[in-house]
Design brief:
- The protein is α/β, with parallel strands linked by helices.
- Strands 1-2-3-4-5-6-7-8 form an 8-stranded mixed beta sheet.
- Helix 4 runs parallel beside helix 5, helix 5 packs parallel to helix 6 and helix 6 crosses helix 8.
- The longest helix is centred in the middle third of the chain and has 14 residues.
- It is globular, with a radius of gyration of 19 Å.
- It starts with 47 loop residues before the first helix and ends with a helix.
Length: 320
């Protein structure tokens, strides 16, 4: 699943929780569940615009990854009248160690969902819509047909809106990926999430090479399409591993990469091994641009859909 980790809003006088077993010594003087660095403080998602969006989503029986994954940028994005729609239900067939979205056995497909997303996008007057999903590994196409129909419904109801899809790996079924590509989104995003060494612990039901193949196949089939991926830091990766992973993602033809800090959703999720500093994120941005990326969005609070509307303008640069 693409969007990750929540931020925790701290209250004065809160009792510090015990440290998790098996945690490395990297945060020995920075308790994970309490003392976060100043650059990870954000405001609560409140205000009339936020409530209007929440009411609209509930009336359309829609889910947003902003809420389901407790995104730290929810206040900023919802306050500006933008959101990322999460289709195919709210239950994921995978159980990644970092993700706040619930896992389990999904319900049946909601065939009316694409039309409701299209209507919501039109009513919100969005200039750019992001559509993501849970994993639906029990489906032959992984939900690709619903993705494609959602793109078509948004185009029909809001023809001036650009569309970004943040897709799962469809279990490596390239025919499913082609179904989405044929619907012609403006940006296709598939997150690599972490360095290959950490996949067994972080993404036990995913395969690093499979994610690279999604990116490679996308650029081979649709070279003019903006292709995007993202990784998160703080799970025990080294700087060298991050740079190597960034290089391998770029080698598939990927145009844009997002890099953000992992934030632990709950005590049951993977612990934070380290907080990367804003300066380190900036250094990775500079390194990524030197690798040939059209754009690198890198910072502690960066998530897959953060500033997504700005990435559409990179289409001309990316397709050269």
């Amino acid at each position: 699943m693409a969007e990750l980790a929540p931020i925790r809003f701290e209250m004065p006088g809160e009792i510090e929780r015990p440290r998790s077993r098996g945690r490395s010594g990297a945060n020995a003087v920075v308790p994970i569940d309490r003392s976060r660095p100043a650059w990870l403080k954000v405001r609560l998602p409140t205000g009339p615009q936020v409530e209007q969006l929440r009411t609209l989503m509930r009336s359309k029986e829609l889910h947003t990854v902003c809420e389901e994954a407790h995104c730290p940028n929810m206040a900023e994005c919802w306050g500006a009248g933008t959101a990322t729609f999460m289709i195919l239900g709210d239950t994921c067939t995978r159980s990644c160690g970092f993700c706040a979205v619930k896992s389990g056995r999904p319900t049946e497909l909601d065939l009316g969902e694409p039309a409701r997303v299209g209507d919501a996008v039109a009513r919100m007057g969005l200039g750019h819509a992001v559509v993501t999903s849970v994993n639906r590994d029990e489906l032959n196409d992984g939900g690709a047909a619903i993705f494609a129909q959602t793109i078509r419904e948004v185009r029909r109801r809001a023809p001036g809106t650009t569309i970004e899809v943040l897709i799962p790996d469809f279990r490596g079924v390239l025919g499913a990926l082609d179904i989405v590509l044929e619907a012609r989104p403006d940006i296709l995003n598939h997150n690599t999430e972490t360095v290959p060494r950490l996949y067994p612990r972080v993404r036990p039901q995913a395969v690093y090479e499979r994610s690279l193949e999604v990116l490679r196949h996308t650029k081979a089939r649709a070279p003019g399409l903006v292709c995007k991926s993202g990784i998160m830091l703080g799970l025990g990766e080294t700087r060298l591993e991050v740079l190597r992973t960034m290089g391998e993602i770029r080698a598939q033809g990927t145009d844009i990469i997002t890099i953000g800090q992992y934030l632990r959703p709950s005590p049951q999720h993977l612990p934070i091994e380290r907080y990367w500093t804003p300066d380190e994120f900036e250094e990775l941005r500079v390194s990524g641009m030197a690798m040939g990326y059209a754009h690198v969005e890198s910072g502690p609070l960066v998530r897959s859909s953060y500033h997504a509307e700005r990435h559409v303008g990179l289409a001309t640069v990316a397709s050269r």
